[in-house]
Write a structure and sequence with these properties.
This protein is mainly α. The protein is 88% helix and 0% strand. It has two helices and no strands.
């Protein structure tokens, strides 16, 4: 009775299949971008750690926990 209705179902299946493939490709691209962004951020963490270490060192010097010679020696070690 419903002759010719098969093409419509086939078209829906084709569209869903293309959406599935497109979603998979988009997921792969997104994960690849996240991975490369993470490695780039890891390279930028060293200056931040150095800055934090110097701040802690300055605070210890200000509180009198270390003297000037120790401060200078530790600062050179952190900056190298």
């Amino acid at each position: 009775m419903m002759m010719g209705g098969g093409w419509f179902v086939g078209l829906i299946v084709l569209v869903l299949f293309l959406l599935l493939i497109g979603g998979g490709v988009a997921a792969i691209v997104w994960f690849a971008a996240q991975g490369s962004r993470g490695s780039a951020q890891a390279g930028r963490q060293e200056p931040r750690r150095e800055t934090e270490a110097l701040e802690i060192l300055r605070q210890r010097y200000a509180r009198g926990e270390i003297d000037q010679d120790e401060f200078q020696q530790m600062r050179k070690e952190i900056e190298s």
